[in-house]
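Q: I'm writing up a methods section and want to include an example of the input and output format. Could you take the sequence below and give the corresponding predicted structure tokens, formatted cleanly so I can copy it straight into the document?
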Amino acid sequence: METAEDQVLTVPNLLSALRLACVPLFVILLFRGHHRFAAAALLAVLGATDWVDGWVARRLGQVSAVGKVLDPTADRVLLAVAVISIGVDGSVPLWLCVAVAVREAVVSLAVLGLAAAGARRIDVIWLGKAGTLGLMFAFPLFLVSHSGVGWHAAAHVLAWLFAVPALVLSWWAAASYVPLAKRALAEGRVRSVP
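A: Here is the clean output for your methods example:
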């Protein structure tokens, strides 16, 4: 009998897959259409679905093993593409792009390394989610601040108000994963011993 943990076709997984599928549309809007505001709006909606799919998963009892991998993967892909694209666009300072990109690369490589070493999976912690959410507010606001909308100056201030705490939270989360990773690796090795 299939348990909720074994489910693949769930509403939250569909939302995560949709988020991934819309990443190319974001890039097209930004670079081919030069529609910064539309790209920012899409990015904001895609970022918001990260919280929606988690809420739906818990509310409907559709937390699944696939979702626990798909959701953070979609987050990482969306954030990486957004950071690189908006950096290339010039709407975000290079140092901020590098700080976010390096953190994402470190976390992603650590996850892959831990999986290859047989560690048990580590659940995403609140600090990481909060940092990602803040960045998913900041980056669209940076785009808006470089668009032609009337409130572009306010968007610039708001972007920084989200970016700085989000960057601190995301790096704090990365540091917080170190003891969790050590424990997960030890537990994974113990479990694999016959």
